[in-house]
Amino acid sequence: MHAMDMLRSIAAISWLLLCGYTRAAPLAERQIPSGVPQYILDYAPYVWLEPEEQFFPSDISAQLVNTRPAVDGEAVEGAPSPLTLENLDQLNGVGEVWLTANNDWTAGPTWTRGAQPNMDGKTEGAMSAAVIIHENDNNTVDAFYFYFYAYNQGNEVLGQELGTHLGDWEHSMVRFVDGQPESAWLSAHASGGAFTYSALEKLQGRAVIYSAKGSHANYATSGSHDHTIPGLPLEAGLLNDFTGKGTLWDPVQSAYFYTVSFPEDADETDSSVPTFTSFDGSPTAWLYFTGHWGDDTLPEDDPRQADLFGSKKFTGGPTGPRDKKLNRGEVCPEGAVPVCDVRGFLPPGS
């Protein structure tokens, strides 16, 4: 190669890296279970992780290795040992269970850092996502793409970090009609946003969403996002998420795949009656677990705890996918927003 051509090639590669480019593995290279509808993969969202992200997608089962079940701060007697994705549901019925860290989790130990996706967008050695498919009536299918992070780092308000917790479940949902993507829901804290699928940014024909630094809330655009009042973004607020093109993650490359069904008379608010079925024999017991995927809120007298206007620095971990209203009438989960406005455009801060 001529010296000048080599310099041009190096410059081009450098430019792509600076722009956050990463190649994504074609569908043929993904180890997807047989029977998963092709359109679920063809339109599965990519996720841009923020450039300064420190807490990456995490292996779901690793959370059980690094925690122990507790109720009211006391270890659960007779709990399965070891605790696995195959027996996690055995903790149901013993009280409000919190998967409590085996060591001090508040400083973000190594095991909470997750697995940074490689150049193909895959979290090597970490099953960090789950795809749950629900068939509705009228040829409508909702595909839930769940994203797991071992650690949620809260936002800063007046110099004080608030809302940090162990364990973090986020999701996007794509509604398909006759196999075509019609609309999508992006979870963000206790709320989120709904968009037509066509309005979302695309990469290789697939929607692109942005995961906020630390909190991992999902947004449709890069930049700053106020979430002081859930469901009502302001131009300037106290609580702000930040998104950008850092590392590109392709969650379906390291995901479990399931279907979920409900009795005919079940409504959206009834989370006690789902039936989960795996496409390839992957564990399902963990999906029935009703407890929390992290520690309880630290008590006020704990020296690590802090308070600002009644909001805590270290809060309790979330419950899992079964509580994310998988049996929806509208694209938006009930109670998440005042009105389910499915936007056909991307306003600033969305």
From TrEMBL:
| Key words, A-Z | Signal
InterPro entries the record matches: Vps62
DNA damage in keyword set: no
Instruction: Determine if Manganese is one of this entry's keywords.
Output: no
Q: Which domain of life is it from?
A: Eukaryota
Query: Region Disordered: start and end of each range?
Result: 308-329
**N-terminal signal peptide:** 1-24
Recorded protein name is: Vacuolar protein sorting-associated protein 62
